[in-house]
Structures are given as C-alpha cells and as structure tokens.
Design a protein that fits this description.
Layout lengths: L4 E3 L1 H5 L20 H8 L8 H15 L8 E5 L5 H7 L4 E6 L11 H4 L14 E5 L12 E7 L8 H13 L1 E14 L11 H9 L4 E3 L7 E3 H5 L2 E2 H4 L10 E3 L2 E12 L2
Parallel strand pairs: 1-8, 2-3, 2-5, 3-4, 5-6, 9-10
Antiparallel strand pairs: 6-11, 7-11, 10-11
Helix pairs in contact: 2-3
Length: 267
Amino acid sequence: MPKFLILPDHEMRERTRASLNRVPDIHDWEPGTPLTDLMREMADPVGIHRKSWEYAICVQGLRDLGVINESATALAVGAGSERPLYWFANHIAKMVATDLYDNPQHEGTPLMLEDPQLFAPFPYRHSHLEVLRMAGDDLRFENDSFDFSFSLSSIEHFGSREIQRKSFEEMIRVVRPGGVVCIITELIVTDHTHTDYFQWSELEDMFLTNSAVELVGGTPDLSISESLIRYPVDIPSSGRLATSPHIVLIEEGMIWTSFSMFFRKKP
C-alpha cells in the first residue's frame, strides 16, 4: 500500500513528478510549466489554491492521454460552474455538465441551468456547453456516449459509499472503450476516517480495483513537501479560501489534500 512520502522542501524541489496520478505540491505552481500555463488560460485568480491545481491537472492529463480534440465529447459530473467546463467548450465539440443544481447558495446553483454565461470566467462557445440536472449515480445517457468524463472533488459529496461507487461506475459506462475517466477527490494524510474523504485503502477499494478500467498516466505519486504537512491550512480559521498556499488542509486534527486519478476504459 503506498504511503505518503513527506520530503524536506529542498528535496521536493529537485524531484521530478511525471505521474498524472498524484497529490499537489507547491512546486506545481512553478511559472512557465504546463500546469501554470493552464491555470492562466482558465483565468484563475492570483494565489495558490488546490482547486486551481485540480482544474489544470484534469486538463493536462486528458490532453496528455490524447482525448481532447475538436470532435470530442465530454461529461462532467457534479460539475457546478467549474472553470474547465468553459475551457472545454472552447476546445471540444460538446461539453455536457451535470449536477443536482438545487442549491442557490452553493456552486450548484439552479442559475447555472438558466444561464451558464453568468458564471463564465472568460468568453466561450455557448453552443458547445450543455447544462443538465442529473444525479451522478443515475446518468441518463446511452452506453459509450462520451470520449471522456471527469469529476473534480465532487464525488465524495454524493452520499453513501454505495452512491459514490455507483457514480464512478456510471461515469465509466457512458465513456467509450478507450476513453478516459478523470476523478479527483480528497485523500486523508492522517489516520482519521471520514464519511466523505478517503483513506488510501478506501480509495483503492472504490476506484483502483474496478475491473472495467485501468489506471493510466503513471504510478501513484504521494510525495509532498514537509512544510505543507507541518503547516496545513486550518479550515475553520481560514474562511476556507483566505489562506495561501491552500494545498493541504486540517480540521479537528484530520489532514487531507487532493488526489488525481486517470483511468482508461477497457475494450
């Protein structure tokens, strides 16, 4: 079972992290890299925040795996109004965003159904984005409908572990053989358990052992800078977004961060 590799900061600076399946680290924000170029393309605000990393690693991974092109179709699950929706609308034939869209006070606001342009961070091709109300565990699409699907730190909030598992299976079902599914979720660093976030063993059971897909893009990399673990962002005191770098978080002693995974659907 992989363990977190907590390294002195100077060692992490010299470490090459080529895997797409990894946790974020401060050095992912180094200027002039593909990730920071994508963050800039998506008009992310100034600051270091793991959501910016999630958006960028999703696009980079899907691009590296060869599924982004002008004829491609994609499905986002638990999509809210995330920036990649608009980026993909400018780069593929069809971007379909799904969510419950039932909470006016949340990213999943019903306004997204009425006028997604209200949330666009930059100009986009309106006809290439479709927004639908749909639960992740009941995707109303035919088998093999999309070239790729993705869910960015959403699937852990879908409900029970059974609903989360069914949602992953649904995302696989609607992707064509050879297509790619990207899942980014929260991975716990400490020994705590959580109803939503995952210990490594839970993540392995939920995602990495599914026989319909194979992990692609490299061996999981759990290396991370010591300073991020030593000084995590305290959620209650930070107002969630105020503190930068917002990469590793802590709440009531539980420390967690993001983890990206890319799967290719088997024939």
